Amino acid sequence: MTRYCATIQYDGTDFLGFQFQPKGRTVQGEIEATLKRVTQSEIRIDGAGRTDAGVHATGQVIAFSVEWRHSLADLQRALNATLPQDIIISCLKIVTDDFHPRFDALSRCYCYTIDNQFWPSVLQQRYAYHVKDKLDMVAMQSAARFLVGTHDFASFGKPTQGTSTIRQVMETDWKTDWKTDGNLLFFYIRANAFLYRMVRKIVGTLIQVGLGHLKVQDIQTILEAKDLKCSASLVPACGLCLVEVVYPE
Amino acid sequence: MTRYCATIQYDGTDFLGFQFQPKGRTVQGEIEATLKRVTQSEIRIDGAGRTDAGVHATGQVIAFSVEWRHSLADLQRALNATLPQDIIISCLKIVTDDFHPRFDALSRCYCYTIDNQFWPSVLQQRYAYHVKDKLDMVAMQSAARFLVGTHDFASFGKPTQGTSTIRQVMETDWKTDWKTDGNLLFFYIRANAFLYRMVRKIVGTLIQVGLGHLKVQDIQTILEAKDLKCSASLVPACGLCLVEVVYPE
Predict the structure, then answer these.
(1) What is the DSSP secondary-structure string of chain A?
(2) Annotation marks residue B52 as catalytic
(3) Interior angle at CA A169, CA A139 and CA A7, nearest 5
(4) Closest residue by Cα to residue A153 from A144, A145, A165
(5) pLDDT at site B12
(6) Nearest to B184 by CA among B137, B233, B237
(7) A9 touches chain B (CB under 8 A)
(8) What angle, rounded to 10 degrees, do the helices at B27-39 and B72-82 form?
(9) ipTM value for the complex
(10) Which residues sit opposite B244 in a β-bridge?
């Protein structure tokens, strides 16, 4: 048995999420079914992050152990030829037997995309959340800086395992691009790990700052409250994308 | 009757093209059906360009004349609320009775998107053409410059009306963006008008330059040949988008 690490991309639109569920289409379910078809054996995969229903990924990382007598490139080609259209393995490597994509990860980076113009862009509706009122990017940028560092993020989510709500946010950034005349806003956030729905709660709260309903400094107050009820409501899954998982070396 | 000009966007994936056809879903057909539902009258629309099946638009322009007693904003809201998910009116204006979106246009600008990496990006597959071999952008940029000016483009397309194949290309540009690490290439081309499938023939030929199968100067030779058989084959519709139509004033 050899252990493989794969960087995968998926369009989350038509999935109930990453994690296998007995009923319904999941990323894990599709990949495990593909591995069974290609290798004729029952294989369980481990993922770096359990993205929710509708959340996309361009840099999700999975690992699995399998007996394969052909080349690494052959395995990647065979899997990509068998996977459904909305999942692709963009990189495949051999790793040590003890590699675990979740426990070995140093950090994860998510990007949340907002389509910020009065009428939504038709070509962005699968991948962006439409906010018609103009957002103040400078205010959202300043507010996001309060999140950087090791804090108790109880105001922004619940742990998916264990009880600690302390996480380390390494960086946050709001960006735009020339291609959409600044109408698409991208929020990047990197942390050692995230609480359940933490990015979507943070973005929901930052949008309130961008709309002028909250002041920049209110983010600090909300963070210190350590109370989930203090943050704003969740933004939709379609705007969220897991873009990178970082490992040692 | 008042004449209206609308800038519309559509995701071309599920359309047989812009122009009405008795069978099958078209952009014109959907908009005319929407106008009928909203205004209770049979209205014909005129479009600036008849995009092919699968071609997208973020800046198509249409015009129509209708009796409407409420505000302009109300008309736009009513139409957008009734249009299918994959069409939106992003701008609506009142124009003079003689305005024609096709005949009055000074120029059209198209953008063709190429996903240039070994494995395709899952999130781009509806809107980009995947080319796995690395393209030489500098060579494609230089080659595209030969097209700028007033030339006989018979090597790149047939006229949709009349017999002249002379068109004026005002500018061409290849761009990338930071967001995809330069893996997405955008080709912009503006002309007074285009021949049938001209942009897709041009991009197909420029790709041959980018792959090193043609030299930069070969574009000049192909242009001078005035023979459709001299250019490379068509690239797929999914990468093409009508981004702008320019009018006087």
Answers:
(1) -EEEEEEEEE-GGG-SBSS--SSS--HHHHHHHHHHHHHSS----EES--PBTT-EEEEEEEEEEE---S-HHHHHHHHHHHS-TTEEEEEEEEE-TT--TTTT-SEEEEEEEEE-SSS--GGGTTT-EE--SPP-HHHHHHHHHTT-EEEE-GGG-B-SSSS--EEEEEEEEEE--GGGTT-EEEEEEEES---BTHHHHHHHHHHHHHTTSS-TTHHHHHHHHT-GGGSPPPPPGGGEEEEEEE---
(2) yes
(3) 110
(4) A165
(5) 97
(6) B137
(7) yes
(8) 120
(9) 0.90
(10) B109
Mutation site, B123, B125, B186, interface A, largest A CB count within 10 A: B123
Domains of chain A (ranges, CATH numbers): 2-95 (3.30.70.580), 107-246 (3.30.70.660)
pLDDT at A249: 81
CA separation for the pair B146, B241 (Å, rounded): 22
pLDDT in tens, B112-148: 999 999 999 999 999 999 999 999 999 999 999 999 9
Tokens of A36: 């069974």
The residue with tokens 């600690």 is A164
Distance (Å) from the alpha carbon of A13 to chain B's nearest alpha carbon: 10
Q: What stretches in chain A show pLDDT beneath 50?
A: none
Report angle CA B86, B88, B91 to the nearest 5 degrees: 160
